[in-house]
Amino acid sequence: MSDESRPSPAGPPSAPVRAPVAAVIPAAGRGVRLGPGAPKALRALNGTPMLIHAVHALAASRHVSLVVVVAPADGPAEVKSLLDAHALSGSAPSGSWGSTDFQVVPGGETRQESVALGLAAVPPEYGVVLVHDAARPLVPVDTVDAVIEAVRDGAPAVVPALPLADTVKEVEPATEPGAPEPVVATPERARLRAVQTPQGFDRATLVRAHETVTEDVTDDASMVEQLGLPVVTVPGHEEAFKVTRPLDLVLAEAVLARRRLNDGY
Length: 265
Ligand code: C5P
Hints:
Elements: E1 21-26, E2 44-45, E3 48-49, H1 50-59, E4 64-71, H2 76-85, E5 101-106, H3 111-120, E6 128-131, H4 141-152, E7 157-163, E8 170-171, E9 183-185, E10 193-195, E11 199-202, H5 203-212, H6 221-226, E12 231-235, H7 246-263
Parallel strand pairs: 1-4, 1-6, 4-5, 7-12
Antiparallel strand pairs: 2-3, 6-11, 7-10, 7-11, 8-9
Bound molecules: cytidine-5'-monophosphate (C5P).
Cytidine-5'-monophosphate (C5P) is lined by residues 26-29, 40-41, 70, 107-111, 114, 133-135, 242, 244.
């Protein structure tokens, strides 16, 4: 646990203790859209598994004191040894990642199940929980911190979001792949946002959402919306894109190359 999460003996007795932050990283998907091979989270980016990049990205925030990785159901041992190999297991030595604890738990059939299993492993003292896709390995620390700050300021759920470049059409999905699909609506682009992770939550709200919402969702914040609670956005970042298709791997390696040039990352 990082120092800021602990009550400071030197501080005034009335100083509020800032809620400790845990991050759950679902990494149990197969990633079929990326083509055949290892589970997506274990694919390499510049020689390092995507998951390790994602863990580094979250641990880079000095506010995050616990990271729970949700591994493929048959792969917790492999993931644990990967974290060990990158010196990220147990209590990491103090260094540029700060002092962050790590845990690995087996995942479920769906992303939602995997997140619930990770959330169950977060001890109750963590008042803020982030959920971050292993498939977004390059999220900048400033985005992570902006999400945490908004939750600590009182929002029950926070999502990083970006305006859209493309106009979006709602269609009647075809039953056969490639068949023409009737367009049924064109939502006003200026009111649309593409949302990313980490999404941040007041812990009790996220637990309640997972207990209450049973239908399939594609992000955690929409479960909170279904509870009727407010969800707010903070600015997302173009480097927090999700690695989904083969071209995304090329883009991710280009981003890493640019970072190395710019700041020696
Ligand atoms: O499939 P999609 O790209 O939406 O997956 C988003 C994230 O959820 C990925 O990091 C993936 O590993 C994770 N996931 C999971 N358990 C599943 C399916 C997806 O942890 N059963």
